Amino acid sequence: MRLTRRTVMAAGAGAAGLLAAPAVFGQGRPHVVVIGGGAGGASVARGLALASAGAIEVTLVEANPRYTTCFFSNLYLGGLRPIESLQFSYDGLTAAGVTVIHDLATGIDRGARTVALAGGAVLGYDRLVLAPGIDFVEGAVPGWTLDQADVMPHAYKAGPQTDLLRRMVEAMPEGGLFVMVAPPNPYRCPPAPYERACMIAHLLTQTNPTAKIMILDPKDRYSKQTLFENGWLKHYGGMIEWVNPEFGGADVEVRPETMEVLIEGEAQPVDVCNVIPAQKAGRIAEIAGVTDDSGWAPIRPDSLRSAIDPMVWVLGDAAQAAEMPKSAVAAHSQAGVVVASLLGELTGASVPPPLFVNTCWSALAPGDSIKLGGAYAPGYDRITQTGSFISRPDETEDERRLTYEEAFAWYDTLTAEIFG
Ligand SMILES: Cc1cc2nc3c(=O)[nH]c(=O)nc-3n(C[C@H](O)[C@H](O)[C@H](O)COP(=O)(O)OP(=O)(O)OC[C@H]3O[C@@H](n4cnc5c(N)ncnc54)[C@H](O)[C@@H]3O)c2cc1C
């Protein structure tokens, strides 16, 4: 049964704001519900509302009243940005004509095309967009569950966790040990753990110069590795140690109760432990039944339409975008493709060929940043990389400073494009 105006109204007061326009395709404006107001979802919601100029009703469901960007959250850890500068309200989306509902989506009935919210409301949709970001794979790091995140924070969803990690680093004893448990591929922002090590080293260099940072890594190689290792040596001497699987990086267990990490069974006392577990699509994608055994949502590479349900689009970190990394730039770029695809579907507008891009900047130290990027195109059954660039190891200090400044300009431009 499709929702009628009456059943939506009966579902709860929270849905009342939606009733200005009918939610049933063919009886009025088509209704697109977007779940997740981050880099991907907020970009789609705002972009679709503006581009359709009122022809499509757009509702955004986002759990939090303010969004804290993961991108640049490492710079907060390093003391280079205040946390408030990373926080955004949804006023710009409301001004663009999006109905913003702050609630948690808890259920999706793809047959009835409805979304249930924790507050009790039920929303009908004609097309659904899922951009819920990531969740963590349970049991990925033995000894760690989400309940222990206040003792061993992940700080991989920005906000209170990021703040907690920063306070823990500041409170480390002199000469103490910071351990990071790095995630296996694929995960959000491949260079982020290694940029985080730089930023924490930068903070410690000023406050606790004899402290050490150890990265326990289940991977043999990681993004921008040579550039990071050169930067660690140049700026932080021997403060950062990277432990690969050969030396126990993949055989790790944590004991939050005693603040220990077991590496190949050998207990190592730690002062701060940053556990970044293996990741999967945000839980609501799984609840919707649009993920597969990989934990991510398979999509059609030309449109980000779900490979499982043609009424659903999935973008950002939750999508299986193959060779495209999980980043805010990638999510925003995918949003442009989703908006065009929805406009084509719902208004008959012509759909331009998809264009996907990504750039990831990483700060090694104040005034010294590196970058990596690529262009992507839809292949037969997956998004494939068509070009790439990366900073050179022999760049001058001036070139690095330019990249550093470019990253700050990028941040301002991207967040303005997402949030208005
Ligand atoms: C430390 C770190 C540094 C990073 N640095 C960079 C960088 O420099 N450059 C870059 O491009 N990327 C960077 N990233 C990656 C970037 O933050 C993510 O790739 C990007 O945010 C993904 O966008 P998204 O829309 O898929 O998910 P998110 O931005 O995480 O948004 C998901 C939203 O969905 C909401 N949500 C989830 N489930 C529900 C539900 N059931 N109901 C309602 N709301 C829900 C969440 O509250 C959240 O606001 C970094 C990430 C980290 C962790």
TrEMBL record:
Domain Flavocytochrome c sulphide dehydrogenase flavin-binding: 352-419
Entry annotated with the keyword Ubl conjugation: no
Source superkingdom: Bacteria
Keywords on record: FAD, Flavoprotein
Residue span, Sulfide dehydrogenase [flavocytochrome c] flavoprotein chain central domain: 162-277
KW Phosphoprotein (keyword) present: no
Domain FAD/NAD(P)-binding: 31-137
Protein name per the record: NAD(P)/FAD-dependent oxidoreductase
